[in-house]
Amino acid sequence: MVIGVFWSGSRAVEDIARRMAHALGGVGHDVRVDRLAGYSLSPYQFLVFVTEPASLLGKLDGSFIEAITKSSDTIGKRCMALVRAGRPGSSRALRSMMAAIEHEGMVVVDSGLVRTAEEAERLALAAPLQRG
Questions:
Q1: Average pLDDT of the segment spanning 6-35
Q2: Is the pLDDT assigned to residue 16 strictly greater than 80?
Q3: Whether the Cβ atoms of residue 39 and residue 68 lie closer than 8 Å to each other
Q4: Which CATH class is domain 2-126?
Q5: What is the DSSP letter of 59?
Q6: N or C, which end of the chain is more exposed by having fewer CB within 10 Å?
Q7: Measured between alpha carbons, how far is 50 from 36 in angstroms, rounded to an integer?
Q8: Strand, coil or helix: what is 74?
């Protein structure tokens, strides 16, 4: 399966994204990990979005939402939404990210707040990648 792991935020968020990509690649998937910045999301069968709140109020980085909404051919794509926990506004940021993803027609099959790269790796390996 071709999986795209896209992140936006600090070095800690990048570490989480890379650890997830490494775990998914280790079980035979073709994984690309990169900062979410205007890439087409259409080549991927499954998407993982990882970010953190940009403010204490749980707002997301505007460029992150813009990159999700600019991509075409996302209707029906399955994805996972993760937000780095431990910062004020993390829960609100997760809700905002899920709303933006679902607004574009993608299906969020798993979501959550993660504190460590190890926790993200466990979530990646348990993700429902296949339909049904």
A1: 93
A2: yes
A3: no
A4: alpha beta
A5: P
A6: C
A7: 9
A8: coil
